[in-house]
Amino acid sequence: MKITGISAAVITLLPRVAFAARNSLRTVRTGIQPGNKTRLVIETSARPSYSISYPANQVVITLSNTAANRSLAPAMAAGTLVKAITQVQSGDKLQIIADLSTPISSIPRENIMLLNPNGDNEYRLVMDFTADTNAKTASATTTTIASTKGKVTSEPVKAKNTSTRKYTIVIDAGHGGKDPGCIGKGGTKEKVIVLSVAKKLRDKLSAAGFNAYLTRSDDTYLKLAQRASIGEKKHADLFLSLHANANPSRSMKGFSIYTLSEKASDEEAQKLADAENAADKIDVSGFEQFDKDIRIALSSLQQHAVAAMSVEYANNCASQFKRAKITQQPGPDVRHAPFAVLRSTVPGALIELGHLSNASEESLLKSSSHQDKLVAAIVKSVQAYDFDV
Ligand SMILES: [Zn+2]
CA torsion angle for 132, 137, 138, 142 (degrees, to 10)? Predict the structure, then answer.
């Protein structure tokens, strides 16, 4: 991060600290990241427990059990959205209040990173953000933060999360057109089942207040990179790719859930990724370029954050499936493999809804009531997912 200038607008509001703080504030700094993103870094001596709220024109980071730092002068880079940084001690909580030149509604979770100590650095809470259009509606709600400025306060500062953003889910029905996916003994095609489930899921998620989009709404063939890129273009918060499985053993049953990793968690997961990726072997042009673009767009920190959020979602999804008493394929709740369709900046998972190679599961997957059950479990998993910190 480049520090190009130091702002004088630093106010510190600090009563005496009358508690034994477990954590202490080391540094606060801002910088500019590629894409004109503002980076705010809060460094602490121990792993911070924190919450973030977004009152009008501010970002407020509340650190539990943390003592303020009276001698701290935040290092403020020029050209960021942060105009001033104030520390407010409220009991054993320390609030770091960043006054912004332009409001933001919230910082997406993949842009909030908690880093472990390395080299000269201690624990760092790193937040990247840009001014966003959603903030216009959010900033209508003002809070009392501003009134605490200019005086020492020990009152708790009320900071309310004013994010009113609708979350966007992109649902990808696997295969389509010339690519039928796997085919059951009774002739059921994967591409048909997953499209039917995807449409039901879109309707239920829309009804539940989400923006839900499909990568394909009819029997068309889309390249894997095109599917991933729809997630990017829609600025999706979550990308769900729906599939059904086939196994040489006709007795194999159950759902399984996968997230992206460059290395497969087991041989079976790798085989599945190979099978699902095979759709593009017919024509891989465009994918390599897309892949490269994504690699550039994603810092390793963000890749790490996106992977962690995907795993969090996938675990939650697996538990909702189990709660709904949907048969699970033997093995871990969540596996990892290099699925091309998941290669993007959007957290997501690939859900194998069941085995078309198993006769009883083939008829279940065809039935509308079982499809509804699958959809209800996925809707619950989306509702339970923590989109923003
Ligand atoms: Zn598939």
Answer: 130
Number of domains in the chain: 2
CB 131 within 8 A of CB 37: no
> Strand 58-63 to strand 93-100: parallel, antiparallel, or no bridges (unpaired)?
antiparallel
Report DSSP state, residue 139: T
Cα of 93 from ligand 1 centre, angstroms: 49
Structure tokens at 73: 């002068």
Q: Same domain, yes or no, for 132 and 93?
A: yes
Residue 159 counted as domain residue: no
The Å distance, Cα 289 to ligand 1 centre, comes to 23
CA of 246 to the centre of ligand 1 (A): 9
Contact at 8 Å (CB) between 78 and 71? no
- On whether both 19 and 144 belong to a single domain, the answer is yes
- CATH code for the domain in which residue 361 is found: 3.40.630.40
* Domain range for 232: 168-384
117/249: higher pLDDT: 249
d(Cα 377, Cα 328) in Å, to the nearest integer? 13
Residue pair 345/297 in contact by the 8 Å Cβ criterion: yes
Report the pLDDT value the prediction gives residue 135, as an integer from 0 to 100: 54
Query: CATH no. for residue 129?
Result: 2.60.40.3500
For 142, residues 6+ apart whose C-beta sits below 8 A from its C-beta are: 55, 56
Q: Which residue has the tokens 């998972």?
A: 349
Distance 387 CA to ligand 1 centre (A): 27
Å from CA of 244 to ligand 1 middle: 6
Retrieve residue 131's tokens.
């001014």
Per-residue model confidence as pLDDT tens digits over 305-321: 788 889 999 999 999 99
Residues with CB under 5 A from ligand 1 (ion): 174, 181, 243, 276
